[in-house]
Amino acid sequence: MRSFAKTDLLLDDWGLMGLDAEARRELLDDRHGQRATLITSQLPVEHWHDLIGDPTLADAILDRLVHNAYRITLKGESMRKRHARTLTPSAPAE
């Protein structure tokens, strides 16, 4: 985990799994004001507090994340789904 705290830019698919105590401290608190953090997630922001778990730590972590954040919300269908349809061969005609 310590190596993630030292990475210049962290890309994270936020919300795939919960955060343990070590991840909460190292990935966010140790990075705050030191390195860039780019978070990507399919989990809506309003559910992040529950994902983090501990309410007090969740407040502190989210405060640090959103204080200087730029938030971009993408809309529309998943590009993976769109490309999968074009790559999937059609069934042979009978």
What are the defining features of this structure?
94 residues; alpha+beta; Rossmann fold; two-stranded parallel ribbon; 5 helices
Give a written overview of the molecule.
The protein is built from 5 helices and 2 strands, in the order αβαβααα. The chain has one domain: 3-Layer(aba) Sandwich (Rossmann fold), CATH 3.40.50.300. The protein starts with a helix and ends in a 7-residue tail after the last helix. With 94 residues, the chain is of the alpha+beta class. It has a two-stranded parallel sheet with strand order 1-2. The mean pLDDT is 75.
CATH top level class name:
Alpha Beta
Lateral arrangement of strands in the main beta sheet? 1-2
- Roughly how much helix do the residues carry, as a percent range? 40-55%
The termini sit apart by: 55 Å
When the domains are counted, the total is 1
Chart the SSEs and their pairings.
Layout: H1 2-6, E1 9-14, H2 21-29, E2 36-41, H3 48-52, H4 55-67, H5 79-87
Parallel strand pairs: 1-2
